[in-house]
Amino acid sequence: MSVSVDIPAAEHDALAGALAASEGVADQRGQIVQDELRPQLGFHGPDFEPIHDGFSGDRDAQPIIAIGDPERDVASFEDVLRGLDEGPVHYIIANGRQHGSLGAIVIGPATLYLGDAYRIRPQLGWHDADVMDPPYEFRAEGGGHYRESRGGMDQIIAEGLSGGFDHSVINPLICGGVVVFCHNDQLSKLLPYLDGSFKRQAVCIWRKKNPQPVANKHYRPVMEFYIHAWNSGFHPRGALDDLDRQIIAMSPRGVEKFGHATVKPDAVMDKIIRNVAGDSVCDPFMGTGSTGVATVKAGRRFTGIEQNPAHFLTACRRIAASVRAMI
């Protein structure tokens, strides 16, 4: 198996090797992983205890690998990729296959899946809240001053982040509420869909302190919208001052800092997580992990899905750092 992504060569080779070796993982619950897999994943414990059952289904799909003990240890993906001789990796989910995924990792209260949101999210079952920043639908081909002033636009186009998303990933049968970021042009389609799926909804705003100095034959992008929709029992939480429909925050330098063009500010995500109800949060379009960082800081359980291996690795590092800070 080869992995074609723009990540350091050493990590690329280690990931490819780990995935190839994972074909030797036992399919039956409780069965010890094969000896040749242990040193590669840093597993030295005498006993094997799966954290949970993983997935069942097509045995021709790629196997799911989960590393870490959420009760005691903090494991980051780079530790696995580097094949540490010793470290915090103790348990492996060895039974089950996952469609469209290269693997998963457990970091404290966070479980992260590398794969396709549309195939993985329905299999993960109930979460109290889905919080997502899916691809916007907007005109990204502007040139001249617009392209020069809007950093990361080439990356947005290359990663398919301007073509919108399939609304079916939002399913009221598997979440009590949802927060979804969207472009102005998506509101007319997304609001009716949410209105038919949830009991109530509110359009909220992130107002930028430092908007881009461009308009591209439109109004300046001084704000971004997110919709919070919920069913009974999952209404917005927080003190009165925390229930404003807008938050003012600086735009982060996502491309320079995290290699991602659409990173949301920590202040925005912290507020959103304070407002959503429940103990478990899922982000099907995790990116570099901003939702996960906010969820971990709030003391809740997080599940994230990201299909880009480079962004997935960044999310693992950020969330691992947040978990360590909480210990």
Descriptive account of the structure:
The longest helix is centred in the last third of the chain and has 18 residues, at 309-326. The protein has a nine-stranded mixed sheet, with helices on both faces. Helix 10 links the parallel strand 8 (280-283) and strand 9. The protein has eleven helices and nine strands. The chain has a domain at 128-299: Vaccinia Virus protein VP39 (Rossmann fold). It has 327 residues and is of the alpha/beta class. The model is unreliable at 1-102 (pLDDT under 50). 27% of the residues lie in helices and 18% in strands. The chain is globular and about 45 Å long. The two termini are 37 Å apart. Belongs to the N(4)/N(6)-methyltransferase family. This is Methyltransferase. Its EC number is 2.1.1.-. Residues 196-312 form the DNA methylase N-4/N-6 domain. It comes from Sphingobium boeckii.
For the secondary structure, the number of strands is: 9
Given the structure, what is the number of helices? Answer: 11
CATH topology of the domain at 128-299: Rossmann fold
Shape: globular
Q: Compute the gyration radius: what is it?
A: 20 Å
Average of the residue pLDDT scores: 70
* Helix/strand order, N-terminal first: HHHEEHEHHEHEEEHHEHEH
Q: Output the CATH homologous superfamily of the domain at 128-299.
A: Vaccinia Virus protein VP39
Major β-sheet annotation: 9 strands, mixed
> Which sequence of strands runs across the widest sheet?
1-2-9-8-3-4-6-5-7
**What is the CATH-assigned architecture of the domain at 128-299?**
3-Layer(aba) Sandwich
Strand content: 15-25%
N-end to C-end Cα span: 37 Å
**Helix-strand makeup class:** alpha/beta
Q: Helix fraction?
A: 25-40%
Could you name the ranges where pLDDT drops below 50 across 5 or more consecutive residues?
1-102
CATH class term of the domain at 128-299: Alpha Beta
